[in-house]
Amino acid sequence: MKNKIQMSVFVLCLLWALGRQGQVFAQDTPPILENYLREALQNHEGIKQQQFVLEKNLVAVQEAKKLYLPQSTLKADYFLAGGGRTVDLPVGDLVNPAYQALNQITQSNAFPTLENQSILLNPNNFYDIKVRTAMPLFNKEIQYNYRIKKQQVTLQSIEIQLFKRELVKEVKKAYYQYLQAEEATKIYEQSLALVRESKRITEKLLANGGGNKTAIQRAENEVINLTSEIEKAKNVAKNAKAYFNFLLNRPLETEINLIPQTQDFPQNAENTTVKREELAKINMADSLTQQSILLTKAYKMPKASTFLDLGSQGFKWKVNNKTPYYFFGVSVEWNLFSFGKNKLKVQQAEKDLQVIRSQQDQIADQLNLQLAVAQNNYRSALEQYKSAKSREETTAKVYRDVQKMYQAGQAIFIELLDAQNQYITAQNQRNIALTDIWLKWVEVERANASYNL
Questions:
Q1: Residue 88: what pLDDT?
Q2: Domain 2-74+134-302+341-448: what homologous superfamily?
Q3: Is 0.85 surpassed by the pTM of this model?
Q4: Most buried among 293, 344, 378, 410, by the most CB within 10 A?
């Protein structure tokens, strides 16, 4: 009983906290993205489907509650019979001697001779129409069934929270991935402008008697390559946009408002998994299984109910002051012996409970492991970004220096091209590393359930 109370308090506190979380959004989420998250949580078809299941469970609770109330049914029977068992009544043998004596005394035939009777037990040309009203007086199965239905509502509410949290993670990741693809497109477009500028400088040097035609051809090849990379990046961005809009249940080509990725990274992450809905779900499954065991054990208790029949019955569809009737009764049913079948059902339910309880510690450990890995990956992403940013700054300086040297005729084109490619690569690595930080932070948010739904 103590464990049940603790479990109930835990679930209620968690649901209260989840309800409170719906009032605000995480501070680490940009306002534009917050609006998209609200839109996704409101419009996603998956959440609507989960909500329908919740509504169905609420109706099931109402149905279970109605089982306590009386219910009335109309029943009509009509019988035609022939043959079968009979009851023989020797009416003639009993009465005829007395009638004969009376006729002799009265000198008349006023008392007739009677035949012996044979009455058919099965009613022939007989009707029975009645309304039966029945109500349970004592039935533990109804009680436990009602509790199970109520807990299934709570379980479905947790399922909805789980679905929402996964949706938030997917929307955030899709947003940052689209942002990364758009940034990659800009990097290649800027690089294309640099290559064209290098080509222009090479043509100018060639016109002034310096440079060579091979450098111009290499520059033209770089223009072609970068144009191809731009098209690839645009295609990636197009697909990322389509997936993001899909999550928001919008037309796939709907424009997305983007903001530059900030470098103000979150530093303090909650190092706990107590808010995870998975814990509440497994605890609720534990409670549900306990109720199922009690429901299975309810066979030990008797069932009592009462009923009242109001109807009419008679032969040849006749209705008169003798055909109406009422019939009241109390019924008690008690399962005394079933060759151990009920005990085996109880044992199966108890094994289910053992499985769930063995999963509780395992799930808790898995969630802690997930959080630890997510935090480690996030810290690693921060360090990788610092390194990528430093490489970008270094390659940018080298490129500018080599470009000046090339303009002055102090460097060959292959050196300029190498510095340029290193700079482009460093920009892309910095872009990927920056996005990776936010993607890893989304995983941390999911692992500790810190995002306020």
A1: 82
A2: Outer membrane efflux proteins (OEP) (1.20.1600.10)
A3: no
A4: 378
